[in-house]
Design brief:
408 residues, Hypothetical protein af1432, two-stranded antiparallel sheet, 15 helices, 49% helix, binds fe (ii) ion
């Protein structure tokens, strides 16, 4: 599908074929966030809607996941909402009502709701932003077991002249069909994330600093730093989204190679000998070996990050250009500059920043300003200056990620 143009509904058969094709493409994505972003984008394009929001059901409440709004130039892409704001599932709000009833709701004018409806329209966003919400189509996303797992809400359908019009009955039907197909991809994305977190749990048994919260932050920082870097480097949107899909998961797996390092060394109190420290450095090689058997793009990036996330821009990192002698791997001279894969250069900044902001057995958590200063200082020596520039550019997002995954 051409992602930049809305699909014109002329022939129902054509539209259903189009929905099936888009649903199939969703299954090519691995990361839950990339899947949700694409679902919202396709829902809007399908109905030529100006804005939209996607919610997932978590612990009996609706959690904001993505928001898109064409009318705000800087929000062309889906904005992942790293907030802990939730909406109760009840008849008081439009999305809560749709999740509760499990049925779509089509509203022609948000400021003139049909009589007998228990829910009300929350005009808070309009008041704050100056936006005017008129037509709203809200549909539940149901799992294969017919359970509501989320809600898509799209706002202000537009005609060819750009005027806001009501959503048609036909559109309600098509969006419902798409939401049902999309649920398969969402469930798959949830499973993938759970599998990744279980792998991380195994590494955490060896190294207690590699927690679920730490890796989710490192994954999210890496995805957002990459997105900014790619935009400033003029990377085409489809390519940018493809890489962003992979980097979040691959960065979460940066230290899984620790499962290959002995507990006696990782948990040894006091100073390590040089040979022991070399054993720890080999977690990069063990990590890479976990992913080199497969040829998927995700495995390839996971191998790149696992093996290069301790390399430094100036060549002082490890494991470097390794030598292998009689089956024994030896650390070599550090890789430098763009010799280090971009994804690993990004993950290095994300991982160090998060370690600085976290409490460790040997230090207190640093204040985020101090941690940012430290990253700035190491730009051009430890870190790629362009990656650091992107990291600095998205500080509000970095801060909301840190607050969103606020465990240790
Ligand atoms: Fe590491
Ligand atoms: Fe880490």
């Amino acid at each position: 599908m051409n992602q930049s143009k809305p699909h014109q509904i002329t022939d129902p058969f054509d539209t259903i074929k189009h929905i099936l094709k888009v649903s199939e493409r969703l299954n090519e994505l691995k990361d839950l966030d990339a899947i949700l972003d694409r679902i919202l984008e396709e829902s809007r394009l399908l109905s030529n809607a100006d804005a939209g929001t996607l919610f997932l059901v978590k612990d009996g409440e609706l959690v904001f996941e993505y928001i898109q709004n064409e009318s705000f130039a800087d929000q062309r892409d889906g904005i992942k909402i790293y907030s802990n704001q939730t909406i109760p599932i009840n008849g008081l709000s439009i999305v809560g009502y749709v999740a509760q009833e499990g049925k779509p709701l089509c509203i022609d004018d948000a400021y003139d709701l049909p009589e007998g409806l228990s829910c009300t329209f929350n005009s808070g966003f309009d008041t704050r932003s100056g936006y005017h919400t008129k037509s709203i189509l809200t549909v539940p996303i149901k799992s294969s077991q017919r359970k509501v797992i989320g809600v898509i809400q799209i706002i202000n359908a537009k005609n060819d002249l750009g005027e806001v019009i009501p959503f048609t009955k036909e559109m309600e039907h098509y969006l419902g069909l798409f939401a049902n197909n999309a649920s398969v991809a969402i469930e798959q994305g949830i499973i993938t994330r759970e599998v990744v977190l279980r792998m991380v749990k195994m590494a955490e048994l060896r190294d207690p600093t590699e927690t679920g919260a730490h890796v989710q932050r490192v994954g999210a920082y890496s995805a957002e730093i990459y997105d900014n870097w790619a935009q400033t480097h003029g990377i085409e949107k489809a390519e940018r989204k493809r890489i962003k899909d992979r980097i979040r998961i691959a960065a979460m797996l940066h230290d899984v190679g620790k499962v290959g390092v002995s507990d006696l060394i990782l948990k040894k109190p006091g100073r390590l000998s040089e040979t022991e420290f070399d054993q720890i450095k080999l977690h990069t090689v063990h990590g890479r070996n976990l992913f080199t058997q497969s040829t998927s793009d995700l495995d390839e990036m996971s191998a790149e990050i696992a093996s290069n996330h301790h390399e430094k821009w100036d060549g002082s990192g490890y494991p470097g250009h390794m030598k292998s002698k009689n089956g024994d791997v030896k650390l070599g001279s550090g890789k430098q500059g763009s010799e280090i894969p971009l994804a690993a250069r990004i993950c290095a900044v994300a991982d160090v920043y998060d370690a600085l902001c976290s409490k460790r057995s040997y230090k207190e958590a640093w204040h985020e300003d101090q941690a940012v200063d430290e990253i700035k200082k190491a730009s051009g020596t430890e870190f790629d200056p362009e990656v650091v520039a992107s990291f600095l550019d998205i500080q509000p997002t970095i801060n909301s990620i840190r607050e969103h995954f606020n465990g240790t």
